[in-house]
Amino acid sequence: MDRNGKLKVGVIGSGLRGQDHISLLLRREDCELICIAEPDPVMLAGTKKMVDELGRKWPAIYDQGPHDYIRMLDREKPDAVIIATPWEWHSQMAIAAMKAGIFTGVEVSGAFSLDECWELVNTHEATGTPLFFMENVCYRRDV
Questions:
Q1: Where in the chain does DSSP place strands (E)?
Q2: Predicted confidence (pLDDT) at residue 69 exceeds the cutoff of 80
Q3: Which of 91, 59, 90 is nearest to 75 (CA)?
């Protein structure tokens, strides 16, 4: 948390699902969006429009390719990160965030194989860093 008591949040992936998360973060007074990793300039343009319309401070941008999220995690040190990228990236991104000691929220699917699932479990157990799968259907009363 910053000195004002706000949770510093980073987002990996500002496509349409990522923009949903970013929109919610920008509307919260107890969170600050400090960084975004996104290699697609079209998606970044849509995100910039949201940030500007809400009059918020523009976060640090990491747009130098699909692995620039690693530089973001190392440099920005957010308290938490939300991963909203294509599925095949989720495990490696979540593992990198947990190894950096950053609370990690990841959209589904978190893994593509049983081995990837165990990598997530083993990384959590080794680091003690929380990992949360953000599948809203799991929390609906009718499911």
A1: 7-12, 31-37, 60-62, 80-83, 103-106, 131-133
A2: yes
A3: 59
